[in-house]
Design goal:
Elements (H helix, E strand, L loop, with lengths): L10 H15 L3 E5 L4 E5 L4 H7 L8 H15 L3 E4 L5 E9 L2 E11 L6 H11 L3 H11 L7 H15 L4 H29 L9 H13 L2 H19 L3 H21 L4 H17 L3 H21 L6 H14 L6 H7 L4 H12 L3 H19 L4 H7 L5 H12 L3 H4 L1
Length: 415
Amino acid sequence: MKPALYTLVPEQTIRSMAETFNACIDLPIQIINEVGEILVSVGDTPTFCRLFQKHLPVSETCEKLHISASKKAVSLGEPYIFACHADLNHIVYPLISKQSFLGSILVGPFLMDAPDSILISDISKRYRIPMDDALELYDEAGALPLITPARVNHISHLLFYLFSNLITESKKELRQNSQKLLQQSRISESIQRYKNGTIQKDSYPYEKEKELIARVKQGDVSEANAVLNDLLGYVLFSQGNSLEAVKPRAIELCSLLSRTAIEGGAPTDSILKLNNQFLQNLQQINSMDTLCHKLQEIVETFSESMFNYIPSRNSEIIKKAMLYISDHFNTPLTLEEVAAHVHLHPSYFSTLFKNSTGSAFKEYLNMVRIEESKRLLANTDFSIIDIAVATGFEDQSYFSKVFKKYTGLTPKQYR
């Protein structure tokens, strides 16, 4: 039966790449399938390995170890350097497609330190190797390739550069796995901070949510992701590792971010379509790390959507203006003040802003203010007049009029 790997990549292509790698690096390289069987082998297997394998128990085969290391590489999303039963080093790079493991590229064995009697003594005790065989292993250890750790890292990178594009989906999936691992690490750090703090489990950090929205409005993807991970850390800290308990928060956050993007000037029809797609995706997710990673994708998509549609020639000017509005919407902000901030004549700035965002300056400013007022109405017990003032409106009457225009409800009804 044809190996699954060969249904995606021709055998000759893989063999040619392995031969090229071996010719340049002078290390044995093997292509193994999903159960550890060798499909392609280039380079001589050291005598040391053949002698040692005679003493390996049936339960500790090289094939099993290679698959175990390959699965670790899948979770890391990158080449994985590991030591075998005989404490010899290898590098493994996994090949996957649509989350299916197809096999790996295996490089080695080699040593990163000169072999000594301790190496042989340790494995001899572990596997009860007779003295004569141990002495023979010691003699053969000197023939093993010796590579510095720095060069091993370069070889690991070369392995990635050479084979990462072998299967189109593989590189993307492994990158996602790497991003998931990093994100989970950041979330774990956040959980630990909450555990060590004084925040109660029933006190949802709306300030963090507010900060996330602000970062998204600014297009600051890196900081937005950092705040998201902190927020997710709190949710997992308070809800436990319950996917069904966390999903409603994720769906709520997705809708909130989509509204933020629309009110930030992004095309409504495009954002609504994206939001519907994301909501469907969230409902279908069945693992916590995938849910967290999808939220990160949502944050990045909505954050970028507010700026990508702006004509490139004026994007920096409009972005600067939008950031200024985001920071000063709670003041008696005027078109003239923002125009001065971006060094443009008010009349020209007004036209440029409308053409770039699709909204007049006053309309855009009111949308930003109403979004913040909705958050305050839903999450605080501030009076309506206090919320009106806090979001930059001159009086409660005008605030209520604008609020109803954008939401169809009065502030009291919305609350």
